[in-house]
User: Fold these one by one.
Assistant:
Number 1:
Amino acid sequence: MRFLVTNDDGISSLFLHLWVKALLRDGHEVAVVAPRSEQSWTGASKSRYRAVHSAREDHGLSCPTWVVDGTPSDCVNIALSHLIPWTPDGVLSGINIGMNASLGFILASGTIAGAWEGALHGLPAVAASQDLSLEVFEQVRASPGELPADVEANVARSAAHAARYSANLVAQTKPRSFVVHNLNLPYPCPEELTFHSTVPAPSLTPRLFTPADDKAHHRFSFRLGDEIPLIDLGKLTDRAALRTGRGSHTILNYGLLGHG
């Protein structure tokens, strides 16, 4: 199969590199078009009021690779219209550094937005994210181009699972269905992993911006948000699946918006 791959953590993210290597190992044809710098929490924004630049560069991925100084949505839109010479079977976005689970994350995620841009072009789309402990998350964010050996081995396992599962999802998804498959992989990720059908955990995300020391400005303060228990306790949420070491597969069907 042919895949366009993007992310929101930027071209230097080894999480992206490991997913591409897994896809190539499985025999797929891949083109990568990724942001030059991190674009986390940018949602589906596009760079409307400035020129966006792209450049074909070698980042050791063994496949055609372009870098765009814009958002994940910019990357996919420009890639499909101007950069890659073929139409992909699907658009893949990730693997994200950290989970994209619960409503508070899904609606703001640049990773999911990259996949959504593919869906807007009528293509099957999959977003994949790697849950991490807070300690490992901070460690990875401090050195995005380097991974401790144990973390790299874990993400490589996740990438292998994500490559196989996302290829099956793309094959099963009808074009122009406006569906994004949102995958979240647990940490640690086992050798054998089953993805469970989940729904987004309802969550509140208050107090993301906290007062700075000088009381005159505000700075971003990361927090997970407060999960609200589901009224129907028979449905497994994405966050609950991750907490119990299971893979999460949430179908985000944007074609159903507005239908009762």
Number 2:
Amino acid sequence: MPIHREKRTLPYPPGKMFDLVIDVDRYPEFLPWCRAARIKRREPGVLVAEMVIGFKMVRERFTSHVEYNATDFTINTTYMDGPFKQMVSRWRFLAHPEGCLVDFFVDFEFRSALLQSLATAFFGEVVRRMVGAFESRAKQLYGARLPPSQTPVL
């Protein structure tokens, strides 16, 4: 089972990064390999999201249960239905002197041995590009600004 954990410091407030990641409907606009995304059910603190991922001839649809807390800026996702045996991911956005410490974790396993072997071979690159896509999206939406604590006073 590929497991990946990544931490990055970005110059945006934790709330802005949280808002960007929880906006699942917008994923196809910027996330590599995301062909479609929609919220099937929305309740306070919980989403059920469906995504279609595709790469060349491979196209898979899956559904996830997403628990989120807008107060402590956490997003926890568990797999419900689709091509995985199991999948969990966690985003945490922590205040940092330079803006926000993004802490991302993902662990998954496909049912198909073929998909699993492809995912394992390209896993590191895929996850780095995915996290990089969120970083690029933040820059596109919020600019390359410093957090208020580091904004020069004129």
Number 3:
Amino acid sequence: MKRVIIAGGTGFLGRAFAQAAPQNEYELIALTRQPDKAKNLPNGMRAVQWDGRTAEGWGDLANGAYALVNFAGASIGMPPIPWSAERKRKIRESRVNAGHAIVAAVQATTEKPRVVIQASAVGYYGSRGVQVITEETSAGNDFLARVCVDWESSTAETWSLGVRRVVIRTGLPLSKTDGVFPMLALPFKFFVGGPLGSGKQYVPWIHLADHIAAIHFLIDHAALRGAFNLSAPNPVTNAEFGRALGKAIKRPAWLPVPEIALKLALGEMADRLLLTSQRMMPTRLQQAGFKFKFPDVEPALRDALK
């Protein structure tokens, strides 16, 4: 059995990853602060205690592991309330501390894990207007960009320890029940959906099934390393996304939400998550041969919401 350790394994992406894993091949271990409260885990997955900061109590499991997957980190978009200084501190520290714990576990192994998958996000690039973003694009300089840079750097040492490392810069995963997307879809269900701000900002979206399939693809292809953009190959503007969402749930997409209203309600969070423009392309993923099941937004939304 291939042992796969998932930091943040009981969260949205951790559970989705485990549900898509070949259960007869993988031994799935979810690292969580409260294993006694980890209910209804996917078949073949077990929860193991960790403190989010060190390898204490679980580090021995990294010895000879097939993969270490690091999804750990405090939520950025949920609940949808303005970022306080304390919340921003938790957003950053939870990610950096988890990465340092991964490094400590790898350092202590006698048989190194085959790969470390390090989560990151499209926020790495900052707002870029209509510019096409590839993995070669430099980092931005706003709060989320700096968090992503530190997040990625937190496990960089595993490379010098002889472990292949892959960084996944994720767009907006389309899931009916989890993540930020249900919050974006809610107004449309009540017939008050529409573009956010100008609607001209680009949305780097990806169907959850493609997101998880891409991670498994990156784990299993030993020649792949470095940063990969995880978003569909056809990014759309916010207005186009809204129209496609309205069609998918048979609701109008006519009521724009003014930029000033979003900023008054959500502060900096509105700028960084809802009004920023990121025309991100999965250049390296496609060059590696990955095939998207949902490359276009309207069928992806219909499937995600069914």
Number 4:
Amino acid sequence: MESEKRSSNNENAKLNAKQRLLKLQDILKRYTDEENELSLNQIVDMFSQETNRVVGKKAILDDLKELEKSLLFDVTVNHEKEGVEKFYSHQQRLFEVHELRLLIDAVSSAKFISTAETEQLINKIKKLTSEKQATLLKNTILFSENVKNENQQNKYSIHELHTAISNFRMITFQYGKYNLSKKFEFNRNGEFYFVKPYALVWSNDFYYLIGEFSPTGEIRHYRVDRMRNVSSTSEFFVPNPDFNVTKYTEKLYFMYSGEESLIEIEFDNHLINVVIDRFGRGIHIRPVNENSFRVSTQAIISDGLVRWLLTWGSDARVITPSPLIERMRTEAEKLYQAYQKHLHA
């Protein structure tokens, strides 16, 4: 009986000034925005419903006035036409709804984020606006759970890599891929890689690490979701001052490494938007005739470049260099022979 009395007294006890102010901010954040406002009476009712504590109108009104004066938390006051009742709302948020939509869409479409983590992140993003505006974010991009990577260590690996890059620390990790049985296998019998991490790149829906493979000094790319047991070491490294990550990645095709060379390609006119999408509007275009144009640019000669060019069939033709032309011929011949075998099987 005594414990029930104490519980009742706790429920009816008044909130102290700090608790009341924090709860007021919480109510305004959750229930108000540019289109949704609350009157003083509504705010008092919400206090009662959510805290089971006694709160007076004058105390809430004083808190609202203090928040109005404060530069740390926005309170917008709207006077009714008659000038009798005021309505209050919190409108100046860090993100606008359309910006939250972009974040949710990015999370939904990113293959390196697991299904469970995707749902958790979306729920957290929705809390950055009011509950009513969050309902506008229900319509998310549809994603297939089959293409989502279920490596739960991704987020920790990404954080570890960012930290190592910022602090110029060498890293170690194991690397691998899936076999035909869909089981993950380590490369090099599970031996650890020792790498100077230069940058993380988000390409083709995946995070890639660009770094210098320590034993050989080669610049290599590693898909982060295929990295395991990522760890920074105590050893510092000095970045190569001649290596520009931004310029380097502009020359890559599907994150394949290779030798850099000047290439010239002739495209049929209908591929102009494909070329602009890939190279940007700054690419120099030289018309050849009424049907085609040429572009010249520095590129990494790799399987990625060859396969990208093959995507466009005979509508894209390599003019130079000779080694790339030869690789295109070889790959086209392999493709032809593969279909010849299929036809005569």
